[in-house]
Design brief:
The protein is extended, with a radius of gyration of 26 Å. Helices cover about 75% and strands about 0% of the residues. By secondary structure, the chain is an all-alpha fold.
Length: about 130
């Protein structure tokens, strides 16, 4: 019985080594990046869902936030893709856009929602 158990243990240890394979190829596929960024619409919807959940938005607030997210995304893409500005100018413009976005959202939130929103922003910046 002990011999049978020892033989089973022996084969189980070596069978794992036989099945384990490592991709050791060299060439094009070695450093292949399979990551595909999410689509803009998906990101806007995810952000909207987070805001709805965290801030308890009513339907009116939800519609306004969705429009603000779309506008902000379009404007930020214009800034990023523009060749007319240096990287420092683009960074400053994007920061200004983020401030405007924050101010617009705060206009439609009640005081309790504003506190929660500011806490989310503060947490994100860390």
């Amino acid at each position: 019985m002990v011999k049978l158990l020892a033989i089973c243990l022996f084969f189980s240890l070596f069978s794992n080594d036989l099945n384990a394979q490592v991709d050791r190829r060299i060439g094009q596929g070695q450093y292949k990046n399979d990551y595909t960024p999410p689509k803009k619409e998906e990101m806007i919807e995810k952000t909207l869902e987070i805001f709805k959940e965290k801030l308890n938005l009513d339907p009116f607030q939800e519609a306004v936030v969705k429009n603000l997210l779309k506008d902000n995304d379009a404007k930020s893409n214009e800034i990023i893709e523009s060749n007319a500005y240096s990287n420092i100018e683009k960074n400053n413009m994007l920061n200004d856009l983020a401030e405007k976005f924050t101010n617009e959202i705060q206009k439609i939130l009640n005081p309790e929602q504003k506190e929660t929103y500011l806490a989310l922003i503060k947490k994100k910046k860390k």
